[in-house]
Amino acid sequence: MSLLPVPEALETILNSTNELDTETIHLNDALGRVTANDITSNLTQPPFAASAMDGYAVKYDDIDKPLTVIGESQAGNSFDGTIENGEAARIFTGAPMVDGADTVVIQENVTRNGDQIIINDCKAKGSNIRAAGGDFKNGDVLVTKGTKIGARQIALLAAGNVAEISVYRQPKVAILSTGDELLEVGSEIGPDKIVNSNVPLFMALVEENGGIPINLGTAKDTLKDVQTKIALVKDVDIFVSIGGVSVGDYDIIQDVLKEAGLKVDFWKVAMQPGKPIVYGDFNSIRYFGMPGNPSSSYVCFANFMLPAMNKMQGLDGVGYPTSMATVDHDIRAGSGRMNYMRAIYRENEDGTKSVDASFNQGSARLKTMSDANCLLIRDVSAPEAKAGDLVKIVLI
Ligand code: AMP
Ligand code: MG
After folding, report:
1. Most buried one in 49, 264, 330, 338, CB count within 10 A?
2. Residue 54 and residue 88 in one domain
3. What is the residue range of 347's domain?
């Protein structure tokens, strides 16, 4: 079977993945969620003209005369009188402007004696006043559809008195690992066994990217155990299995799933690592069959599953951002498969970016996966690269 090119595999995935439905949530729960429509303000901010400084509210035409202080406007408690010629009012930052006044003089520029003040300096009429609606107005769009809500958006929406927002539902992702050799972290690790690291990897990746992970545990490499475990795959948007998708005698997951309703869209992609990935429809659930080697499954996540999760949440479906950097060393020509090399990139003091992928790329290695801060992408038929050449990287 010929290998499917990476762009075609991604297109197949995105074409078969839809935005999830939406739900209304409280702003306090909105961090990391994606807005399902434009969100408009419920009030004007500031709601009233307010002082931007601590000082005195005055008439600008009066600033050369001694003035009598007749009242005080405090944040939360306005002065309910009006100043006339020859009068001023004490005012503090955030306090409503005083009727009759058109300017605030900062207190550092005023000499006070009892209820009398003398203004030593005032640059211009209208100084130190925040206009009503200067930030935004009632009905203005504060956050557009398809925005991932962060701390700054939460602050803005709170200021606009928006307590509830409509967001896309979080994808629910069932995660199943397979393999007789796997034990959970913290177990007594006997001979022939290793610690399951892919389930913790995928639980964290799903959560980190706005999904809800569901751990289905580990199936032994037997028909019966795999059948029992896949019967648990219900009410989710994505099902990921890890391991058992290659061509070994114990790689049985694909066959068992087919009996239970899996329709395979593709198996094996022209990429390294990650070649044996399976993708399809498992009873209307998006199915990703990831290879067991941690770096392979991670690269498959970055290329394929993350864009699908993004699309489900109303984001653009392109996955991690890419950039360019100059490579520190020579790299041999492309191998006929897209190659994703774990690499470290640096931003140099002169503003240039460089990248180093000169470490062992064995796909079973976890340390290099953890140390890397990018993947260096080598195209299928890239010519040999020389040290100093610009190359494409994915910022992971
Ligand atoms: P497989 O894809 O099942 O042939 O597994 C390929 C390699 O990945 C083998 O060395 C497995 O032991 C290892 N492997 C499979 N699943 C996991 C997992 N959940 N955690 C860590 N290593 C795994
Ligand atoms: Mg296995």
Report:
1. 338
2. yes
3. 322-395
Both 55 and 94 in one domain: the answer is yes
Match 């290879």 to its residue by tokens: 291
The count of other CB atoms within 10 Å of the CB of residue 182 is 23
Residues 110 and 148 in one domain: no
Compute the distance from residue 231 Cα to the ligand 1 centre, in Å: 22
Which residue, judged by its Cα, is nearest atom 16 of ligand 1?
Answer: 292
Cα of 249 vs centre of ligand 2, distance in Å, is 9
Of the ligands numbered here, which is closest to the C-alpha atom of 292?
A: 1
**Does a structural domain hold residue 345?**
yes
Statement to judge: residues 302 and 289 lie in one domain: yes
CA 15 from centre of chain: 22
pTM above 0.90?
yes
Tell me the two tokens of residue 75: 């944040």
User: Collapsing DSSP states into helix, strand and coil, what is residue 234?
Assistant: coil
Q: Which ligand is nearest to the CA of 182?
A: 1
Mean pLDDT over each residue of the chain, to the nearest integer: 97
Residue 315: predicted pLDDT = 96
Does residue 176 belong to any structural domain of this protein? yes
**228 plus 303 within the same structural domain:** yes
Q: What is the DSSP letter of 71?
A: E
Measured from the alpha carbon of residue 276, the closest ligand is 1
Cα 276 to Cα 281: distance, rounded to the nearest angstrom: 17
Closest residue by CA, ligand 1 atom 14: 292
pLDDT in tens, 353-387: 999 999 899 999 999 999 999 999 999 999 999 99
Regarding the beta carbon of 177 and ligand 1, being less than 6 Å apart is answered yes
- The protein residue whose alpha carbon is closest to atom 6 in ligand 1 is 292
- Looking at residue 1, its pLDDT comes to 59
The answer, yes or no, to whether any atom of ligand 1 lies below 6 A from the CB of 182, is yes
Q: What angle do CA 178, 262, 212 make, to 5 degrees?
A: 60
Q: How far is the CA of 359 from the centre of ligand 1 (A)?
A: 21
Q: Ligand 1 within 6 A of 181 CB?
A: yes
For residue 116, give the 3-state DSSP assignment: strand
| Total domains in the fold of the chain | 4
